[in-house]
Amino acid sequence: MPIKVSNESPEALVESFQSSSIKPSFVVVYASLTDGRSWCGDCRAAEPLVNAKFADRTDVLKVVYAGQRDEWRKADNQWKKAPFSVTNLPTLIKVTNDEWEQLVEEDVYDQKKLDAFVGEQS
């Protein structure tokens, strides 16, 4: 399964996208876990659909966590800064040739929107 939880900093992720020979690159930003579950209901709803979508793909999906509620709500949260510019959780980001696109919040767990955003297996 090409889903990998990443502890990379935002800067390191950007660098990995720029050096990646696999295009497009994907990262999903979820709320952090508490007792094995995300504190964010939308993240909990999206996770099984995202996992299923990437289960049989060659694309690698990196999973990062934006923090607990108090960390996420801070204006200086590292994932709120460019180029990620995450405003709501979850956010699925696709990077293709320096073009950054987002699928945000309930759109991530809308199967039709998720399928259209991720596209067919390349």
From TrEMBL:
<dbReference type="GO" id="GO:0005829">
    <property type="term" value="C:cytosol"/>
</dbReference>
<dbReference type="InterPro" id="IPR045108">
    <property type="entry name" value="TXNDC17-like"/>
</dbReference>
<dbReference type="InterPro" id="IPR010357">
    <property type="entry name" value="TXNDC17_dom"/>
</dbReference>
<comment type="similarity">
    <text>Belongs to the thioredoxin family.</text>
</comment>
<feature type="domain" description="Thioredoxin">
    <location>
        <begin position="20"/>
        <end position="117"/>
    </location>
</feature>
<dbReference type="GO" id="GO:0047134">
    <property type="term" value="F:protein-disulfide reductase [NAD(P)H] activity"/>
</dbReference>
<protein>
    <submittedName>
        <fullName>Thioredoxin-like protein Clot</fullName>
    </submittedName>
</protein>
<dbReference type="InterPro" id="IPR036249">
    <property type="entry name" value="Thioredoxin-like_sf"/>
</dbReference>
<dbReference type="Pfam" id="PF06110">
    <property type="entry name" value="TXD17-like_Trx"/>
</dbReference>
